[in-house]
Amino acid sequence: MPVAAIVFDMDGVLIDTEPIWEEVRRDYIAELNGRWLADTQDRFMGMSTAEWSEYTSKDLLDGRRTPDEVAEDVISRMAARYAEHLPLMPDAVQTVHRFAERFTLGLASSSPRRLIDVVLDHMGVTELFHTTVSTEEVARGKPAPDGYLAAAAGLGIAPERCAAIEDSSNGLRAAYAAGMTVIAIPHPRYPPAPDALALTSLVAESLGVLTPERIAEFR
């Protein structure tokens, strides 16, 4: 069956905010005299709000802030940064419009609902998405497939007829586990692991090189 829907990731695909998340979390943890471990950034990428706030509270801050306090603190800082400047990825708005002419669109993001709505509104594309899912709204974050399965259910389209566009290792794993065709656009600062890239049907250097015709070839 041909691809009928595109499910976008947001951070690292539509907006270049992974470096901002890292900076905000690093600064926050340093201010509270916490620790930043060698694998912390990799672990954060794909976690739901509940997962990363608990991990930060217990493993990095030794309980000095509760998970709820961590989530509120970090998300408020991120919202303030978005208000200053929202760094859209090149061709993000044009790509969404181009794909919306041929496919049904969904979004499955690890960002909290509050930030998803801000980003899509700023881009002026809210109405082009038939469903949007935050992993804080499902049981498990990426690499579990929950967010992508929820997006497919919201679209009313089988996962096997959806193509997911992702940048991170855990995102690629989640989309593949959901049974979707997986397209990778690796972030140069946070390249996916080789085993995650091996799950993809296409690796593209940017959104601008993706075309509806190329994706329609997948079966």
Looking at this protein, list some descriptive labels.
single chain; about 220 residues; six-stranded parallel beta sheet
Written description of the protein model:
With 219 residues, the protein is of the alpha/beta class. The protein contains ten helices and six strands. The chain has helices spanning 18-31, 40-44, 49-60, 67-84, 92-100, 113-123, 146-155, 169-177, 194-197, 212-216; strands at residues 5-8, 104-109, 129-134, 162-166, 181-184, 202-203. It has a six-stranded parallel β-sheet, sandwiched between helices. Helix 8 (169-177) links the parallel strand 4 and strand 5. Helix 3 (49-60) crosses helix 4. The longest helix has 18 residues, at 67-84. The protein is globular and about 50 Å long.
Which helices and strands appear, and what pairs or packs with what?
Blueprint: E1 5-8, H1 18-31, H2 40-44, H3 49-60, H4 67-84, H5 92-100, E2 104-109, H6 113-123, E3 129-134, H7 146-155, E4 162-166, H8 169-177, E5 181-184, H9 194-197, E6 202-203, H10 212-216
Parallel strand pairs: 1-2, 1-4, 2-3, 4-5, 5-6
Helix pairs in contact: 1-4, 3-4, 4-6
Q: Mean pLDDT, rounded to whole units?
A: 95
Over the alpha carbons, how many angstroms does the gyration radius reach?
Answer: 17 Å
Helix count?
A: 10
- The strand line-up of the biggest sheet is 3-2-1-4-5-6
Main sheet overview: 6 strands, parallel
Helix content: 40-55%
Overall strand count = 6
Summarize the helix and strand pattern as letters.
Answer: EHHHHHEHEHEHEHEH
Shape: globular
Low-confidence stretches: none
